[in-house]
Amino acid sequence: MKLLKLFTCLRKFMPRGVATGVISAAILWLTLAPQPMGDRELPLFPGADKVAHACMFGALMAALLFDAGYVRAGWRPPRLRVTILCAVIALLAGPLIELLQLHMQLGRSFEWADIAADSAGVLLTLLLMMRMRA
Q1: Neighbours of 94 (CB within 10 A)
Q2: pLDDT per residue as tens digits for the range 33-71
Q3: Burial letters for 100-115: b for 16+ Cβ neighbours within 10 Å, e otherwise?
Q4: Residue 3: how many CB atoms within 10 A of its CB?
Q5: From CA 88, how far away is CA 82, in angstroms rounded?
Q6: What are the structural domain ranges in the chain?
Q7: Which one, 8, 38, 76, 127, has least CB within 10 Å?
Q8: pLDDT (tens digit, 9 = 90+) per residue, 67-126?
Q9: How many other CB atoms are found less than 10 A from the CB of residue 31?
Q10: Residue 73: how many CB atoms within 10 A of its CB?
Q11: Where are the alpha helices (DSSP H) in 68-134?
């Protein structure tokens, strides 16, 4: 419930669209910049890249729902049409970014597994948000 109170407080002071804009900018930077973390090589486990993709796009879905009024409505989701639109936008963002990586030729590559991880993050966040509501 403390998380709900935090989100409700944020909703009062944060204009609609700010959360989505910040998360989108971070995703674009992390996925399109040639070396967003500099020359540092972080020792990670196999598949960490896919977990990061799922987290980023899960955050995008959460931000879209937040900006659509999920919190304002007392933790009830927006209308079904709005929820579906948020999911479609988040689901299309993954393939769009992968296509940008392919055509920008900045050392990033197109990967179907990234699209799958992006989609999994979106769908898991949607399910989690709906479960929290119940």
Answers
A1: 24
A2: 887 776 777 667 888 889 999 999 999 999 998 888 765
A3: ebeeeeeebeeeeebb
A4: 10
A5: 10
A6: 2-38+47-133
A7: 38
A8: 887 655 555 666 778 888 999 999 999 999 999 999 998 888 899 999 999 999 999 998
A9: 21
A10: 13
A11: 80-104, 112-133
Q: How many of the other CB atoms lie within 10 Å of CB of 130? A: 12
Tally Cβ neighbours within 10 Å of residue 26: 14
Tokens encoding 43: 């020792």
For 74, 83, 118, 121, the CA distances from 80, given in Å and listed in that order, are 16, 5, 22, 19
* Nearest one of 114, 126, 133 to 48, comparing CA atoms: 114
Compute the distance between CA of residue 8 and CA of residue 10 in angstroms, rounded to an integer: 5
Report CA 55 to chain centroid distance, whole Å: 7
For 106, the token pair is: 């900045």
- Say which amino acid occupies 37: M
